[in-house]
Design goal:
The protein is of the alpha+beta class. The protein contains 3 helices and 7 strands; from the N terminus they run E-H-E-E-E-H-E-H-E-E. The chain has one domain: Gcn5-related N-acetyltransferase (GNAT) (Aminopeptidase), CATH 3.40.630.30. The chain has a 7-stranded mixed sheet with strand order 1-2-3-4-5-7-6, with helices on both faces. It is globular, with a radius of gyration of 14 Å.
Length: about 150
C-alpha cells in the first residue's frame, strides 16, 4: 500500500478505472462530483493505492468533510483481483489514515447499482445515513457511515 497524490499518474490510473466502471453502470462520466487534488493531501485527506506484483490493483482516497468526518472517494478494485480481500484492505488503510489525522467517522455516497460495494460496506460495519453530497437528491443515491 502506498500513499500517493491524487494527481499522481498511478492514482489517476485508479481514478480513470473507477470512473469508467461507474460510467458503464450509470452512464455519463460516471461521477461529476467536483474534485480538487489538494483535498487529498494530509492532514486533510489522502489517496492510497494497493499493488500486486508491482502493478496497481486498487485504490481509494479520503477528504475532509466538516471538522470530524472523512469522505471516502474513488474506491476501486480491479476486476481481476476482486474477491481476494484487497478492497477491504484498502478500505482499512483509508480508515487508518483518516483516524491518524483525527477524523472520527468515514462517510460515503454511492449508487444502488453497486451491490458488491454495498455488501462490502455493510460487512465492514457501515450503516445507512441521510443522503448528503453531490448526488443526495438523485434516485438510487445511498449514503453510509462508520464510526472509527
Amino acid at each position: 500500500m502506498r500513499s500517493v497524490g491524487y494527481d499522481d499518474a498511478v492514482a489517476q490510473t485508479m481514478v480513470r478505472a473507477a470512473l469508467a466502471e461507474m460510467a458503464a453502470r450509470y452512464g455519463g462520466t460516471g461521477d461529476d462530483t467536483p474534485m480538487d487534488p489538494a483535498e487529498f493531501v494530509p492532514p486533510h485527506g489522502d489517496f492510497l493505492v494497493a499493488f500486486l506484483d508491482g502493478e496497481p490493483v486498487a485504490g481509494a482516497g479520503w477528504r475532509a468533510h466538516g471538522d470530524e468526518d472523512a469522505e471516502l472517494k474513488r474506491m476501486f478494485t480491479s476486476a481481476a483481483v476482486r474477491g481476494r480481500g484487497i478492497g477491504r484492505t484498502v478500505l482499512g488503510a483509508v480508515e487508518e489514515s483518516a483516524r491518524a489525522q483525527g477524523r472520527k467517522r468515514v462517510i460515503l455516497e454511492l449508487g444502488d447499482l453497486q451491490p458488491e460495494a454495498i455488501a462490502m460496506y455493510h460487512a465492514c460495519g457501515y450503516e445507512r445515513i441521510a443522503n448528503y453530497g453531490y448526488y443526495r437528491d438523485e434516485p438510487g443515491c445511498l449514503s453510509f457511515a462508520r464510526v472509527l
